[in-house]
Amino acid sequence: MKMGNSSFVAIALLMSVVVLCNGGKTSSYVRNLLQKPVDMPLDSDAFAIPPGYNAPQQVHITQGDHVGQAMIISWVTVDEPGSNEVIYWSNSSLQNFTAEGEVFTYTYYNYTSGFIHHTNITNLEFNTTYFYVVGIGNTTRQFWFTTPPEVGIDVPYTFGIIGDLGQTFDSNTTLTHYQNSNGSTLLYVGDLSYADDYPYHDNVRWDTWGRFTERSAAYQPWIWTAGNHEIDFDLQISGINLSTICQTSFLGTSTLQYKWLTAELPKIDRTETSWLIVLMHAPWYNSYYSHYMEGEPMRVVFESLFIKYKVDVVFAGHVHAYERSERVSNDKYNITNGICTPVKDISAPVYITNGDGGNQEGLSINMTQPQPSYSAYREASFGHGTLEIKNRTHAHYSWNRNQDGYAVEADKLWLFNRYWNPLDDSTTHIP
Which one of 177, 291, 320, 384 is the catalytic residue? Predict the structure, then answer.
């Protein structure tokens, strides 16, 4: 999907990772690991239900077209379906507009959802603040958002990156820190509510998560990719499942995902949209024991495409820690030739794992030793990332650790664009 920020394209993939070598830096920071993260209680203020009859809740938005002139507004009502309408206006005009969407519900085991609304508002102006109201006819609530700048090769834009958030006290810290950043759109790399971690996959925890994230997601687009915790299958519930995904279904050149990607990548005009960013859930390059080598079959098939089309950076989650790679590739490897060590490749993306949002499963703390040569920086802490696109040639990335109630910029680097400025931007020596 092309973002209206102009200089960016994000491609979302569903699966995954790995490899091995002395590498970069393993952080010396040690987080207090006396206990696993603790879920906020159901009566937490973070999950508060808005007052009023049929008041909209879980309000969130995402971009509704390829260039940034549409926005999908989503919300839930509980007492009755209510109105599907969204009333909206710009900060520079007194004229109100109305758009009408659709509503649906779902059931899962002994849970029945509220009334889920989706309305796409279109023909928006670039770089403009819009106010919008939902809950027409009952209890109304008002929010706002700002559209991205018009497509242009040197237009700056700032993204946040979060993955594997959940709804613990640590999750709350991560989201608060992100809200205090200058991110205008959030790239979310999978594993959202962790509702499937509760007995019978308690979907009430989707509702609490929706209310928890509203304070950001109602005001700026969140762009999503799916994680394994969005695959809902529970053997405790006989005959019930919402979707099933086998990892092998994403592998090989005959799969729908491969065919889609090979058709999509050539469409990207880098003279118009300078930055190419990929979102996926499980990382390909990972030096933690958790989920180590999980996505190797996918990497073998897909990696050459990332190099051919000059992907700048790949963001992933899944591993509950932080890690950044150097520009390396291993696309010459197959299962018979024995060439299994990644090598420096300035045509390759930087791979960044941001699976450190704060969910109740806790951090991945066990790392492979020695640190692999491809690994530039790694740390088992919670936090969020920020990517500031400056122009067609440069972007600045930082990872911000949650520490003692405030965010600390623990890792940072300048990224050089692979199409417009394909210079070596490595931060450690790779033999």
Answer: 291
